[in-house]
Amino acid sequence: MLTRNCLSLLLWVLFDGGLLTPLQSQPQQTLATESRENVFIMPGRQSPAQRVKRGWVWNQFFVLEEYMGSEPQYVGKLHSDLDKGVGSVKYTLSGDGAGTVFTIDETTGDIHAIRSLDREEKPFYTLRAQAVDIHTRKPLEPESEFIIKVQDINDNEPKFLDGPYVASVPEMSPVGAYVLQVKATDADDPTYGNSARVVYSILQGQPYFSIDPKTGIIRTALPNMDREVKEQYQVLIQAKDMGGQLGGLAGTTTVNITLTDVNDNPPRFPKSIFHLKVPESSLVGSAIGRIRAVDPDFGKNAEIEYNIVPGDGGNLFDIVTDEDTQEGVIKLKKPLDFETKKAYTFKVEASNLHLDHRFHSVGPFKDTATVKISVLDVDEPPVFSKPLYTMEVYEDTPVGTIIGAVTAQDLDVGSSAVRYFIDWKNDGDSYFTIDGTEGTIATNELLDRESTPQYNFSIIASKISNPSLASKVNVLINVLDVNEFPPEISVPYETAVCENAKPGQVIQIISAADRDLSPAGQQFSFRLSPEAAIKPNFTVRDYRNNTAGIETRRNGYSRRQQEFYFLPVVIEDSSYPVQSSTNTMTIRVCRCDSDGTILSCNVEAIFLPVGLSTGALIAILLCIVILLAIVVLYVALRRQKKKDTLMTSKEDIRDNVIHYDDEGGGEEDTQAFDIGALRNPKVIEDNKMRRDIKPDTLCLPRQRPPVEDNTDIRDFIHQRLQENDGDPTAPPYDSLATYAYEGNGSVAESLSSIDSGTTEADQDYDYLTDWGPRFKILADMFGEEESYNSDKVT
């Protein structure tokens, strides 16, 4: 620091000593800095005829960082040439940190730092200084800008910003193999001294690894480092500033280095012979044992493949690798039998799947071991002679017929007798029975191939000495067909023939189907029935391929004469016994164009003239409906007019006399005889038929003498009575027709309540009690009413 200040002072003396000659102009002030005291001088000469040229401007101060003194740190001094030392000049300071970090003596111009500074926080401060006349408050000098730079000291140690580090390197790597590069950062000023110059070194991890002091690159230092011996290494790295000299600051970090695996070790069996014991009842495909070869490598380098070396018994076993444990799992390929062979010996080879060519010189990466398997005897169930039994039986076979047999044996030492029975699962198993000792199968019911063509059930064979030991076999019985159904037309055909058809024209191809199970090569034959072969309108041509064609025999057909033709076709099969059936085909006559395309087959089309459109048909139907509506309306009006004629007179008062000869509708029966005809003879219907009887034969109406207008009703009734007495169609004697005359001349007088001089209260109903027990209820009813009326009067 002292050297630097002396250099600054020397430069100021050289410049201020006259090396720079001022110009002839108005006096100007020059800024300079004193070397020892950091004086910021503003020289000026008061000569109105000269302009003084500004000399060397030294506008930079230095201040040490991290100052720990008890007094404020002196920075420098501001001075103006116009300051005569009489206290007439005032110095001011502004800019970064003015008043808070730096202060100035207004009279002397001394600048002090009032607090400790950190270069890493702020490396420099830019301030402005000015000299002001204390009396006039006017600037004596233009405002000048200068810099106070914080001078660095070595107060920051190097830091590893990315630490701790994790790295890996393959095992067996040569010396100098690259591992990782580390980097430390120093916050000190790299342009000033050696404070930021960092050197790297290893504190822990030798002699396995080394580090470049300048670059921080870590490399292997020992050859053939084996992962199987040691996998993890922890290396402690140091970074020291000041170029590693004494007194420099240092920082450390940790690097965790892992040796990755390579396939440098072959698999090895821990022993040369493996002994396994396997029961003879082991299932095919089941695991019967495990062997393992040891490989100290890791991951895919430790993956092992096992193979059975061809030799004795190797074809009965298989070996696969368990992906999780890398064990060899031995499985059974074929069933074992203690009675046939009791022991097997074979060799197993273990080898790596992923080889590394760099280590081929080490030797073959495989190993071999011997496996000896001893078969253990097990009490086994009976064994059937076949895995599946297939039998055939005709559908008409009598009940109890033996159709086949199954056989099972106990192969163990000291064999036991076997018992057979059917495994009942559904009703279909009841069609057959089995002999429990012999194993013969017989029918138990009549079979029908058309309902069930095949039966599939299971038979169980168990030891008599140990019934829990049982085996099962499937039996498949095919029911053979007996020709019992005749062939028929396969589908219902809708056959049509054109009116303009020519002889020999094929109008339909037909085929047949048989519900029997037709054997291969069975043929159907087609022909006309004998009754249809006489003067046929159509014929059948057999094509000898189970199809036939219907051909026309006439030159044209007419729908007006016959719309449908019924053609009986006889179909026979070729099985034994021969079965045949007669199938009637319906052939419809249709109207076609010249090309044979059907235009219409509707029935109504026969009676319509050619060329009549649908719109014309609709118009004709509408006209018919309108005419019918007019006729119905006219008839209704005529009946209404005739009824009104009978009721023209207001004085014509009459009642309906309703004749009852059975239980009917009473007074609501409007079909009763209208007595109005008795009062108005003109409206008597001459030919009105009797309503109360139904004549057996049609009789001609009798000619009655005309009735005069002034004929009395009594004479009219008498005349009608005579006519009825002589009428052969009159009702029988047990039917009574009553004709009475109601009015003033009648013995019963008027039956109407109109103009009646008496009331119901004046009537005496005591005579009802004399009529017998049948009228007792009626007499009681009117008697109670009469007593009730008398009570009201009293």
Give a brief rundown of this model.
Residues 1-25 form the signal peptide. With 794 residues, this protein is mainly beta.
Cα Rg: 70 Å
Number of strand segments: 41
In oligomeric terms, what are we looking at?
Answer: single chain
**Beta strand %:** 25-35%
What is the CATH class of the domain at 488-600? Mainly Beta
Number of helices: 5
Transmembrane segments: 606-637
Organism: Monodelphis domestica (Gray short-tailed opossum)
Signal peptide: 1-25
Subcellular location: Cell membrane
Verbal overview:
This protein has 794 residues and is mainly beta. Among the domains are: 60-151, Immunoglobulin-like, CATH 2.60.40.60; 159-260, Immunoglobulin-like, CATH 2.60.40; 273-376, Cadherins (Immunoglobulin-like, Sandwich), CATH 2.60.40.60; 383-480, Immunoglobulin-like (Sandwich); 488-600, Immunoglobulin-like (Sandwich). It has 5 helices and 41 strands. It has a 5-stranded mixed β-sheet. A hairpin with a 4-residue loop joins strand 37 (538-542) and strand 38 (547-552). Residues 1-37, 43-58, 605-610, 649-655, 681-688, 690-694 and 696-700 have low confidence and may be disordered. Residues 80-160, 161-269, 270-384, 385-489, 489-607 form the Cadherin domain. One of its GO terms (cellular component) is adherens junction.
